[in-house]
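Agenda item 2: adenosine-5'-diphosphate complex prediction
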Amino acid sequence: MLLGQKNEIKKFSFVKKNVIIYHSPISEASTKDDLDVLEEANFFFQNLQKLNYQPIILPFEVNLQQIISEIKIHYPEFVVNLVETINGNGKMIAVAPLIFEHLKLKYTGNSAESIFKTSDKLIAKDLFLRYEIPTPKYFSLTTSNEINIEKNEQFLLKSRWEHASIGLENKLFNDKTLIINKLENYLKEGKEFFAEKYIDGREFNISILSLDSKPFVLPFAEMKFIDFPNEKPKIISYDAKWNENSFDYQHTQRSFETSEKDSELFSELKFICEKIWKVFSLRGYVRVDFRIDKNNSPYVLEVNTNPCISLDSGFLAATEQAHLSHTEIISQIIKDMNKNF
Ligand SMILES: Nc1ncnc2c1ncn2[C@@H]1O[C@H](COP(=O)(O)OP(=O)(O)O)[C@@H](O)[C@H]1O
Ligand SMILES: [Mg+2]
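Presented output:
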């Protein structure tokens, strides 16, 4: 074989495959939690390069013609879906993967259907009940469950669609009329909220990564509340997540410490995580938030499909505990990609 020919073959086998990393569109009005997606895009970018792909980062605009022309220009092998909000609206989270499916594009993370069912917290809770997955008692203005509030029960008011503790008040309520009033007022402002029983106890954020397309429950992260005054509800608020100078940020801490006496609880949590993976047909990467009551019974608060993977994220902290490298995580997510539609 002539030298020139050999080089041609070599060059051809090293042609890198393009990947588009689509993230939530960012504007001047974007808040810290929205801007975090850029860190995540950067994380995927760097690791895809290490895996020999040619990635490009683009904001996702809801404009079918624009997306089609971007696909024609870059001709990606697949798309990384980091779209969480559109114009800051969490309710729009399933729009991007629906469009990817419409265009028959392979994309990372969870399917449009799984994303929709989990990000609508009321639909998710209805499904938890149907499949006997424990979740705190709740009601909304639209659900038909009977509203009976016991004397010793406290309720917090949560957004049906938002994440990152957006809109979560650090207040608990016990009065049914007051709660209904507050829910109606939220609705008048165009916000859908519901009431959920406050579980006074430990909190766990449990990350799951698909390993060879099976769910691998990563080491459990307990969120510890340090020196919270007695009267202050133990809630991982928006401040606790995003405002470094706040009391809540400085007095909450992630811990991976385990104790022998938790072994029964931990196997129950693992069992619930694997059940959730099956019930919601999950893929790639997920984080489940739990609270544990005084009787050591676990309750699922929510399922986060495609949770944030940036350098300071809880998901990455959990993978570090399991000694998984960054490129290993990304290759496993690619392996479990959505392509069955
Ligand atoms: N029923 C509940 N009991 C106790 N704490 C809760 C409850 N629901 C939410 N919280 C607190 O609020 C935080 C945010 O609620 P969550 O349901 O995880 O929504 P998101 O993280 O999507 O905003 C939780 O991490 C937890 O600290
Ligand atoms: Mg949460």
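Discussion summary: The radius of gyration is 22 Å.
Owner for follow-up: CH.
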